[in-house]
Amino acid sequence: MAHKITVESNRTRNQTQSLNLANSITIARFPLLLVVVLLLYGQEPSGHTTAVALTALLIFMDTLDGVVARRRNETTLFGSTLDIATDRAVEIVLWVVYAHLGLISVLIPLVVIVRGTLTDSIRNVAVQHGVSAHAMMRTRLGKWLVASPPMRTGYALVKLVAFMTLAATQALQSHGVAWADVYQVATIASWVAMGICLVRGLPVLVEAPTFFRSLEAETA
Known about the structure:
Layout: H1 2-18, H2 21-41, H3 45-71, H4 77-100, H5 107-128, H6 140-147, H7 149-175, H8 180-219
């Protein structure tokens, strides 16, 4: 009977951790992403304008959930994995949509998708062994490029500029307002974001063999 109560208690605690405030903010990004996509494909100029603001909110929520998790001591392996998966989904969807709308080269989403597939496959192995995606990095340079606040914040800001200015370009076009300067910023930011994406993904691929060897040694 006591064992059953302990199991139920652990199950309840795990469910509570999975549904904490930080993870709820992360999950809330999915319906917001759907709204943004619908507005981008809509025909109303006002909808395109709204998409700019909602895109900013969508990217800001990626920072907000991390801040909430740390301040409320809600940092968990599940939360870290959910955050990365959600961020990847949002990023890929927006790049694909902007490419489909003819605002960026199709090369950008292709590179992001291939890079994400490779790094996430490696990180999935780490998670299965109880190691978070960022904790698996072993070298100082790798940790700085992948997990340091300057790199994570810088990448988030560049993506924010790219996604917002791309949405703003469409909004300005639909309103018949000059948009060339904004589009130039959007184009530069998009290519820079792709470059940072590659730079932050490279250490994961380079350090993967060493990480896998360490796992094999631990299980031997």
